[in-house]
Design a protein that fits this description.
The structure holds two protein chains of two kinds.
Chain A lengths: L3 H26 L6 H14 L7 H12 L5 H12 L5 H26 L2
Helix pairs in contact in A: 1-2, 1-5, 2-4
Chain B lengths: L1 H27 L10 H23 L9 H26 L4 H17 L7 E6 L4 E3 L4 E5 L11 H12 L7 H23 L6 H32 L1 H14 L17 H14 L3 H18 L5 H6 L2 H17 L12 H15 L1 H11 L8
Parallel strand pairs in B: 1-3
Antiparallel strand pairs in B: 2-3
Classes of the chains: A mainly alpha, B mainly alpha.
């Protein structure tokens, strides 16, 4: 009953979200209008976190690690979701997404270290 | 700098990916090296490696990555690819290139268990090369156990616990959602209890507040998952799983009442885990077994000098744990898995339970009995 399943399960969630956030940032920062497929996974997370305690366990896990690494207030989540859905991401939203991407990257590094046991 | 570095490094990584593909193909070419039950793992690894090769290519070919502003995104993507490739090499391909008789036997055993309990997913393959304890790798549908565990019966009930991890990490599958919902509800009541503690005024110090914050996170990051996996195992395997937990605690664990305040704690205290197991046994047909296990458990705690501490009592009230048992029980039933029963006639289930019966009935003769009977699990053993 090691914690590897938990760690690797969490790793998958972190990896998938990290890819989604970076894909979105790549579009937003390069001036390309992201399509719905690119926007949806990130908006889904942000919206699910508005009611975090009734969200899926994997969403709560992602919300937790974002919180530990300085996620914005709940009040920002609505704005972020609206801006992204309406294809008008503000500099603030891009900044929040960049912070999330950095948090996920740090989490990836931490989980990786735990998996390797070093 | 990054451009030149990636040109060199990506070229090397692509060559590494080709080596991995070749290793898998060499195994596939020799039927006895890679039996059919391992082909799904081989295909998963092949697909994943190919996906990573495409991702590596895009690091060099996507014109957006030429922009100086986007280099941090490029570097993060590069690191993720490396992690994935390492994981495939160190876990997936490492399993495939060393499949042996023990792996085949344990894979068959897990397949038999899956059949016995109406497990709703494709049972994972098993590698007997774990350098830790029992380990589940849901993304590869792979279980890893210590090399020689296959020859001994007392810890094998832990296989049921690991099977539950695959259910909890399954996506987009309504068949297993009731058990995933049990996890969600368990986390919700766990966090709700912590929130109640936080709201109680005058409870204490900043240190206590920090502990509460840690406990809130721990319900999400692992406590709920582990309790639900324990409950799945005890509902599927019966008393043998609880005995196996006692065995593990006697051999390896520390204070079973210690509440881990680290922010990345994955396991709840062993006493809480034993409590939910005994409750679940009582809900099946094993009230007498639960009493017998509890008696031995309490003796173990007494002889080791362990006793409850205030954090444990506050964090894991019996009412909360009992609620979690009820959620898991309902979830387990709703996904159609067969509950443990003496009358089930399930061969592996019965063997694991008989092993523990024999162990306590005549401890001095147990090793001999196990040697004669483990053939039921491992024909070559």
């Amino acid at each position: 009953m090691s914690d590897t399943a938990i760690v690797t399960g969490g790793y998958q969630d972190v990896r998938i979200l990290a890819k989604s956030v970076d894909r979105l940032l790549l579009d937003l920062k390069s001036g390309r209008n992201p399509d719905e497929k690119t926007i949806e996974p990130v908006v889904e997370l942000v919206e699910a976190l508005l009611d975090e305690k009734s969200a899926a366990a994997s969403t709560q896990f992602l919300g937790l690690l974002w919180r530990r690494r300085g996620r914005p207030d709940y009040s920002r989540f609505n704005e972020m979701a609206s801006e992204l859905r309406e294809h008008r991401a503000s500099p603030n939203t891009v900044k929040d997404l960049e912070d999330l991407a950095s948090a996920l990257d740090q989490e990836r590094a931490d989980i990786s270290q735990r998996m390797r046991g070093v | 700098m990054l451009d030149a570095y990636l040109v060199g490094s990506v070229g090397q990584l692509m060559e590494r990916a080709r080596h991995l593909q070749a290793s898998i193909s060499r195994q596939l070419a020799v039927v006895k090296n890679l039996p059919p039950e391992f082909h799904a793992l081989a295909q998963t690894c092949r697909n994943e490696v190919n996906n990573l090769v495409v991702d590596l290519g895009s690091l060099l070919s996507d014109p957006r990555f030429q922009s100086p502003d986007l280099q941090s995104i490029r570097l993060r993507a590069y690191k993720r690819i490396i992690e994935e490739l390492d994981f495939l090499e160190l876990v997936g391909v490492a399993t495939l290139i060393r499949v042996n008789d023990e792996d085949r036997s344990m894979t068959k055993v897990v397949g038999v268990i899956a059949g016995e309990i109406n497990y709703p997913l494709i049972p994972p393959v098993v590698s007997c090369q774990s350098q830790g304890y029992f380990q589940a790798f849901p993304s590869l549908n792979l279980l890893s156990i210590p090399q020689k565990e296959v020859y001994f019966l007392l810890h094998l009930p832990d296989l049921y616990h690991e099977l539950a991890h695959f259910i909890l990490t399954e996506r987009n599958n309504p068949t297993v959602e009731p058990f995933q919902d049990a996890l969600k509800r368990s986390i919700m009541v766990g966090r709700g209890h912590v929130a109640d503690l936080m709201n109680k005024e005058g409870r204490g110090t900043k240190g206590f507040a920090n502990r509460l914050t840690a406990w809130d996170g721990n319900w999400v990051s692992g406590w709920g998952i582990e309790l639900c996996c324990d409950l799945f195992a005890v509902l599927a395997c019966g008393p043998a799983f609880a005995w196996s937990h006692l065995h593990l605690c006697a051999k390896r664990a520390g204070d079973p009442f210690l509440v881990d305040n680290a922010p990345d704690s994955t396991h709840p205290p062993d006493a809480a885990r034993m409590f939910v197991m005994l409750e679940a046994l009582g809900m099946l047909e094993y009230a007498a077994d639960a009493l017998a296990i509890e008696e031995k458990w309490n003796q173990l705690l007494g002889q080791a000098g362990y006793r409850q501490n205030p954090d444990y009592t506050i964090c894991f009230p019996h009412a909360l744990l009992t609620l979690i048992v009820s959620y898991a029980f309902a979830g387990y039933q709703s996904i159609g898995c067969a509950p443990s029963s003496r009358a089930s006639g399930a061969k592996t289930h019965d063997l694991f339970n008989e092993a523990w019966h024999r162990f306590w009935d005549a401890p001095e003769r147990y090793a001999q009995w196990e040697k004669a009977n483990r053939v039921a699990v491992f024909p070559g053993g």
